[in-house]
Amino acid sequence: MRRFLTASCFHSTKACIRTPFLQVIPMSDERIIHTTGRNNCGGRCIIHAHVRDGEILRLTTDTPEAAGNTPPLTACARGLQYHKTFLHPDRLKTPLLRVGERGEGKFRTISWQEAVERITEQWIRIRDAYGVGSRYVTYATGVSAAFSPRSLAKRLLALDGGFLDYYNSYSTACIEHATRLMYGTELSGSSRDNWLKSKLILLWGHNPSETHFDASTMYYLRQAKERGIPIIVIDPRRSDTVKALGAEWIPLRPATDAALCDAMAYVIWTEGLADKAFLDRCCVGFDDAHLPSDATGESVLSYLLGIIDGVPKTPAWAERITGVPAETIRSLATRYAAAKPAALILGYGAQRHAYGEQGVRGAILLACMTRNVGVPGGWASGTGYMNRHALPHLPFVPNPYRMEIPTFRWTDAVDHGHEMTALHGVRGGDRLQSDIKMIVNLAGNCLINQHSDINRTAALLRDTSKCEFILCSDLFLTPSARFADILLPGVSFLESENITMPWECGDFLGYNNQVVEPIGEGRFEYDWLSEVARNLGLEQAFTEGLDTPGWLRRMYDEVRAKEPQLPPFAEFKEAGIYRYQNDPPLVAFERECADPERHPFPTPSGRIELYSMQVQKAAFEQPFPAIPGYVPPPEGAQDPLHERYPIQLIGYHTKRRCHSIHDNNPNLEKLDPQRLWLHPTDAAARGISDGDTVEVFNDRGRTRTIACVTENIMPGVAALAQGAWYDPDESGVDRAGSINVLTSWSSTPLARGNPQHTNLVEVKRTDP
After folding, report:
1. pTM higher than 0.90, yes or no?
2. I want to staple 491 with a disulfide (CB 3.0 to 4.6 A). Which of 116, 188, 272, 522 is the partner?
3. Residues 143, 127 contacting (CB under 8 angstroms)
4. Percent of the chain whose pLDDT exceeds 90
5. Would you say 399 and 428 are in contact if contact means Cβ atoms under 8 Å apart?
């Protein structure tokens, strides 16, 4: 057993057994080891691992009593099943070298020494043959902690001359860009205790009950419910959040959020409910009198009233687009405007659409029109990010190759990177010098499973004349790992140390204490990257003489120098958690709204930019307006393709998985079996009954799953939980219900982000 397994942070309980001869035989002590979840889940739960003789007996978690006056970091079913997921017998145990065609999943065992030597050889060959910009580290969040494999790989590549970097995330590209466009920052969130001062809460495309979005959100929403604050959920599905909060449900068609915002804004203005003084003082572009002097487009008000296009954005207009009755839209708008204050809280689902930026801009417009920005109990909408405390991070190493691409467009850079320019989202230069020739994919499943259009992506990666070398590390032979040329066994958070940070909001830091020994020859990525660094002559620069615990202590102590509340490192590690106390409430943009002259917004104009000169001056592959407003998306309900594929398919985050993690854990399937949600009218029209095997298809692919016929989804819409591991049969039809065989490669206009909820499909009954 490792040295630190006997540290004082582990509590012991004595136990014994009695034999038939009444002898008392002491059993080994049971130790409780404190750790925290570190994968890409907002819950960041506290895990108490009960261990005896190096084996985990069970996991327990945080309690309200332990949390005191802060939100408890309580594990859901996923968290309490971590050991059964991560310590599964199917774990990768040795380094592997591809021997079949790429993607076949055929490998032979090699030693760590051979693996490091082969990695070094390809690393140098590709750098020298194609330039440093041919090397790329994929977006990967299987280790979403302070000491993350992708950050370590980028550190080494930067020290070795540079690499093609990315910006954005799969989760939040549109909401971040739209929020930054209008407010000049992504920090549009107030502390969640402000919701208890609201008179009305709108959850728009937000399902924190199932996603475990973060520790604070449901904690305060439940308190709001107990205080009688009305809560409305706007979503194509009646989610668990609707049920948990006893909320009112307003279903709308996918990708029509901006149209609903437009009609609400129209009602608020025409019924005299808008705060004109706030719009005049704090915003740019609401009406013609407040347009930028060099603006060439129409103001928000002209658009809403239909002055140029002759189409007023009335509730009747929006009903035809959204499927929400006009009277419901009118009521929703007046209730929101009259509540004073009200919180319109966006989730991430509504912005993962074609033109997903526009729904976010529309929500921010509504917050501005009703003067719910900068006031306690209001909500500025947008990302809702906030940051009250410093966070640990690796020391920054500048990337000598300054160019970067939107993360969702990495497949374009593999296929034709040398043709990509600023028009395609390239930053830091006019044009990429090379296609991507080397991919480093560490602790992530976005290489195949979580990226759009799996069939197209797989065909691209099978072509070894394009990307010549793919290096992966993972715990299992996932769909992405099958495409590795070298596949390395990693370790889970139960087998390593790290520091867990809040996901979006939260006033705590967590420590990952190692619980058990690594399985097989599994290693944390830093260890073998250090050996590659040695071969490159960069070991000292890369490691600075520190091992993993040394780096964690250094990062923590740097934060502690800024956060005097934090205890010494040894105490923090022993407890496994530190919760900040007595943080005062925070209201986003309070100073800016009170006095924008002395405290301007961090935008070019110093005001909230309802009209964006940045957009007006930029070039886009698809039309994109300078103001909020509905743009009919490709594969939306108004697309002519709807005649051929009449069902709008969305994905959702299921309570049984965190993205694709836990899909191989059969114990969790009972929580939410992989099923296609289909409304009874759509099912009846196709002769489909609940429990039937169905095939969902479009021009990109086909997947089979089981039908769940339910009124908890609106007509014309189907939903399939994202994250199921792609499993094609001999003819290429997926058997797992993996939604990304059906999703589109096309990115959104402004953010060049993820549109994976905008898909037209057809559904048919098929044989099991």
Report:
1. yes
2. 522
3. no
4. 92
5. no
